[in-house]
Each structure stands twice: as C-alpha cells, then as structure tokens.
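Appendix C: a fully annotated inverse folding record. The material below is reproduced so that readers can follow the format used throughout the book. The structure is listed first as tokens, followed by the designed sequence.
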C-alpha cells in the first residue's frame, strides 16, 4: 500500500439509526487499533516449557481515537449526548486503500481543551461494543 493522506481516514456515525452515516465533527487526526486477547493453555508438559496459546479463543476488540474541533452546534450536541447517555451507535472507519470497518461503538473517553488564543478542541476514544464487519474497497 502506497502512502495515503491522513485526512482520507474518515470516522462516521449513524446518528439516526437509519443506516445513513455522516462525518463526525472536524477531526484533525484519528486512529484505529484492533486487539485480540490471548488464552494461555500452558501446562506442565508443554514442549520445552514454552507458552502455548489457544487459537481463536480470546476476546477481540477495537479502539478508535481522534482529535478535532466541532464544526457546528449539531455535531457538538450529538457527541455530548452520546457521552452523557452512554449511547452505543453504529460507526464506520473508512481506511483508504484498505477498506471500511463498521460496527457498534461507545464513547469511552471525551476531553475538551482550549487555549486563550485558539479554538476549543476535543479528544475522543470509542471502544467496540459488538462484532465488527470489514468491507474491502
């Protein structure tokens, strides 16, 4: 995969529950990580005393993080309500030349910051709340 523009990595949410996705606020940076816990099945007779893992048995999860600014009052209100209500919604991450990841996520962290001579910015982290799907481009 050749180098891609960071701005092409999109974070979108289905805020109405109708399957229609819209970009979230004015994200300036964003990232996604996939995780899989391991299940250790090492025992006294493990070959050479090396650790053994059980394939496909661990819990899978994903985390999305981003920083940005609110582009309008509507995006501010949407994110604020998700934070205070603990809302779980369908989100999409569009990764250029890789594909689209979609599934349920909940906001697990939300921070606001601002300088006296600048705009109010936010940092947001979402944790997966169910099975994710992947669609290649």
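Designed amino acids, in order:
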């Amino acid at each position: 995969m050749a180098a891609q523009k960071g701005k092409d990595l999109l974070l979108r949410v289905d805020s109405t529950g109708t399957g229609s996705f819209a970009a979230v606020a004015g994200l300036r940076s964003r990232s996604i990580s996939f995780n899989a816990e391991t299940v250790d099945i090492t025992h006294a007779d493990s070959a050479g005393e090396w650790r053994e893992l059980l394939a496909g048995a661990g819990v899978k999860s994903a985390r999305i993080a981003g920083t940005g600014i609110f582009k309008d009052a509507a995006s501010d209100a949407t994110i604020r309500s998700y934070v205070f209500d603990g809302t779980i919604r369908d989100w999409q991450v569009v990764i250029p030349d890789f594909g689209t990841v979609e599934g349920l996520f909940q906001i697990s962290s939300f921070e606001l910051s601002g300088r006296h001579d600048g705009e109010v910015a936010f940092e947001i982290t979402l944790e997966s709340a169910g099975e994710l799907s992947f669609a290649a481009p």
